Amino acid sequence: MTLDLHGSSAVVTGASSGIGAVVAARLAARGADLVLVARRTDRLEELAARLRAEHGVAVDVVPADLTTPDGVTEVVKAARAADRPVGTLVNNAGFGTHGPFVEEDPQRVDDEVALNVTALTNLTRALLPDLLAHASGAVVNVASTAAFQPLPRMAVYGATKAYVLSFTEALSVELRGTGVHAIALCPGATRTEFFDVVGSEEPAVGRFQTADQVADTLFRALDRRRPRATVVSGRANALAAALVNVLPRRLVLAAVSRVTGG
Description:
Keywords: Oxidoreductase. Residues 8-186 form the Ketoreductase domain. The protein is an alpha/beta fold. It has a single domain, classed as Rossmann fold (3-Layer(aba) Sandwich). It is built from 9 helices and 7 strands; from the N terminus they run βαβαβαβαβαβααβαα. It has helices at 18-29, 41-55, 69-81, 106-134, 155-174, 194-198, 211-222, 235-244, 249-260, and strands spanning 9-13, 33-38, 59-63, 86-91, 137-142, 180-186, 230-232. A 7-stranded parallel sheet has the order 3-2-1-4-5-6-7, with helices on both faces. The chain is globular and about 50 Å long.
């Protein structure tokens, strides 16, 4: 079964590059109108123009800072102003920091939690009634393989992604029978701008995937009649995530600490 999104709109945060931009293009190819969200207006406008031309869909651009309550409000207003009902929400916006927690910039930590956790939660709460009224679609929350174990030297990032995973899995149960699915997409190291923001590729684990490969994983899940609540991109990543659940916690922490430089 191939998911047909004609007649609905999709909200994608963090859409200016990387996984967000690729997922937005895939949604447009399946007929969804788009509300694209990021801080970089020029990137959004460029992507929007290309998707309008290639797929004939309506695309609204919302340059918003989701670390602020006003940014979240702007996105909700734009989504509800679209001509078609919201059928898909992709909470992709997020970033990570790397280094000893005691040395972290407090404002940077605040922004990391605000974007990765608070904005994702508030957007989901605000737009979920719209999806339920449409009685079909999905909330896709981009977590990470970082969600499956604590990450020394990326303590805040790992904790935020663990929240995303737990929140989404719980939501998936609450949504049973509604026609709306909740999916936690868990990529590993991916060739995007993520590590440019982090400032180092030192914490990257395993072989890098491309954003297209991660999107392939997501859409295979979306095309299932009953999508799984947690979808890990890449076989090696999926195996590693499974092993975390069976190995003693102290061994997991010791192994992760060596990889991340903790």
